[in-house]
Every structure is written in C-alpha cells, then in structure tokens.
Write a structure and sequence with these properties.
150 residues, alpha/beta, 5-stranded parallel β-sheet, cytoplasm, UspA, Universal_stress_UspA, Universal stress protein, Rossmann-like_a/b/a_fold
Length: 150
C-alpha cells in the first residue's frame, strides 16, 4: 500500500493541509501518517536556580499534543482514508525524514508559511531541509489564502 507522511504543527493552516492530504491520499489510494514532532523543551522551565526538568510537564504537553492530533486522525478516518498518528520528540526535519524512510513513504505533504520572498521565509527551515534531503517527492501546500481554486 502507498503511504503519505503529513507533518502536523497545529498552525492555522493545519486543517487545510490535512484536507489536501486527504484529497491526494484518495487519489493514489494511500495510507496517511499524521506526524507531530514535539519540542524537545516540553518539560523544561527556567526559574531562580536556572533550568529545571519537570517530567510531569513534558507528559502533560505530550498528552495535549496527542489529543490534538487525535482530532485530525478522526477527520481523516471520517473521509474514508486509512490513518495512523505518530508523535515524536526531536529535530523536526530529522524526525520527518526518519519516519518517511521507516514507513516506506511515497510522498511527504507539508505546509508552507508564505511569509516572504526568500526560500527560508516562504518554506520555513524545516520544509527547506526536508526538500533537500528527502528520498521521495515532497509536496508543499501553500497557505489557503494564496490558493485560487476555480
């Protein structure tokens, strides 16, 4: 079976990117892996004595992010597309590429920020890094406000 990795960052464009991923998954009969890469600093706070690691904060943060991802999983399932969620911590581009390889992905679908004219600003550093290093096609979905579906 074909598969698509869709990194999810919970930005305002996430729902739109998932809609587009559903469209492509149906077109090529693919399973969708919704991947969220959580921040490495979820359990750290800074206080009077410097940085402190609080595992309960990390656990709560990971649970919130997983719960949010489950909402998107439900949307994909309701559209009739097979889906699996993945939540990992680490450097986003590295995790995206690692999971794409592990899942033998045929396509990576990511969103762009659309904030400027330079590649960094248009795509963001994560998208740019994934495009440079991916062994499979990467589809960049522009922000919905820039798409003119007629």
């Amino acid at each position: 079976m074909r598969s698509i990795v869709v990194p999810v960052d919970f930005s305002e464009s996430t729902a739109y990117i998932i809609e587009e991923a559903i469209y492509y998954a149906k077109a090529i009969h693919s399973k969708v892996y919704l991947l969220h890469v959580a921040s490495l600093d979820l359990g750290f706070v800074i206080g009077d004595i410097g940085f402190q690691y609080l595992p309960e904060l990390e656990e709560a943060g990971m649970k919130e992010e997983t719960d949010e991802l489950l909402k998107y999983e439900k949307k994909v399932k309701e559209a009739g597309v097979e889906v699996e969620i993945i939540v990992k911590q680490g450097a986003p581009s590295e995790i995206i590429l690692k999971e794409a390889k592990a899942k033998e992905t045929d396509l990576i679908i990511m969103g762009s920020h659309g904030r400027g004219v330079f590649m960094e600003a248009i795509l963001g550093s994560v998208s740019k890094d994934v495009i440079k290093k991916a062994k499979v096609p990467v589809l960049i979905i522009p922000p919905k406000k820039y798409v003119n579906h007629k």
